[in-house]
Specification:
58 residues, two-stranded antiparallel sheet, 1 helix, elongated, lipoprotein, ABC_transporter-like_ATP-bd, P-loop_NTPase, Lipoprotein-releasing system ATP-binding protein
Length: 58
């Protein structure tokens, strides 16, 4: 299958919140025809990850 998206070691933290890590070393790949879900409790970084992925396509 053709790979359509790959991430390696995504990190995001906020300095104003005492170096609060939202995402730490996130890596994954998606292939054509695959489906995935991003699940987690409130404040776990789901929206932050999607935001980072969305600005990669500019």
């Amino acid at each position: 299958m053709k790979q359509v998206l790959e991430t390696k070691n995504i990190n995001k933290y906020f300095l104003k919140l005492k170096d609060f890590h939202v995402l730490k070393d996130i890596s994954f790949s998606f292939h054509e025809g695959e489906f995935a879900s991003i699940m987690g409790k409130s404040g776990s970084g789901k929206f932050t990850l999607l935001y980072i992925l969305s600005i990669m396509d500019t």
